[in-house]
Amino acid sequence: MALGRNRRRERGVDYWPGFVDALSTLLLAIMFLLTVFVLAQFILGREITGRDEVLTRLNSQIAELTELLALEKSGKQDAEDVLANLQASLSASETERSRLQALLDRGAGSSDAANARIGTLTEQLNQEQQASARAMSQVELLNQQIAALRAQIAAVEAALQASEARDQNSQAKIADLGRRLNVALAQRVQELNRYRSDFFGRLREILSDRQNIRIVGDRFVFQSEVLFPVGGSDLDDRGRTEMDKLATALLELAQEIPAEINWVLRVDGHTDNAPLSGTGRYRDNWELSSARATSVVKYLISKGVPANRLVAAGFGQFQPIAEGETPEARSQNRRIELKLTER
């Protein structure tokens, strides 16, 4: 009867590992997309802040130049008013001079008063002509200054338009970068999942279908009793045999994974919640779990696995996979987990 139950259990299909693999892949994709989104928001924020500062400076310059232009126009108008008054006065003086000259001609030079009046008017006329010439020079200078201010305003407006165009171009580039990163993310996740599936498939073949070596989600799980003596962290003979098989599969897979995929094999050590005796080699389960993970990593390195492709971590009793205080639950929690992931 026991043999019959074992056969029925072997014929059963376990869908849970595939579901966990899909969920893990989706979680990785979401985390990467969030990272890309935060990075793009950060870059865009810095870009927009810089553009806003440039736009503020340009608008300030335009306001200053507009104010100067208004002042120059006001000065030009005042000069034109003065010039008009001088020209009117000059015209009146010339009229008066002509009238007196006509009187003088009729009197044949007999009137000293008329001569004196003519001299005075001539002197006034000369002064007004000089003032008119100065006013004309001032108006010409104001016209040149106004033209220069208009040229500066045109240059600032052109710079403002160029800055806005660059801002739009930068935003388009950021959007395109996000799309390309999303495509690259999907490709990387698919590639890593394919190699992870190949790796676990090979481990299934070489480590057989033993009850104390199994796959849970995206992790390959060894019960501690398969690798270590009770309370110890040094691999025993059976543990070294299993790690030799693991190293062989890992070295074969390393030759197939492209160099651009920065993969690592994470080795996690876990214990049950039973406290260690005070006379042992390790003070608590933290030290024991870390020592066991490190022992596996060092043995794989001795078999040729590159050290930069391995990570060791100890979790003590704080990541159980089985609840309860029964011997069976504690046995499941004492384990070494292997996970193929990205750095």
TrEMBL record:
Coiled coil: 76-166
InterPro entries, A to Z: Bact_OuterMem_StrucFunc, OmpA-like, OmpA-like_sf
Entries under Pfam families matching the protein: OmpA (PF00691)
Domain OmpA-like intervals: 216-343
SUPFAM superfamilies according to UniProt: OmpA-like
Keywords of this entry: Coiled coil, Membrane, Transmembrane, Transmembrane helix
Entry GO terms, CC: membrane
Domain of life of the source: Bacteria
Transmembrane segments: 20-44
Keyword set includes Coiled coil: yes
NCBIfam families according to UniProt: PRK09039.1-2, PRK09039.1-3, PRK09039.1-4
Protein name in the entry: Chemotaxis protein MotB
Organism: Rhizobium rhizoryzae
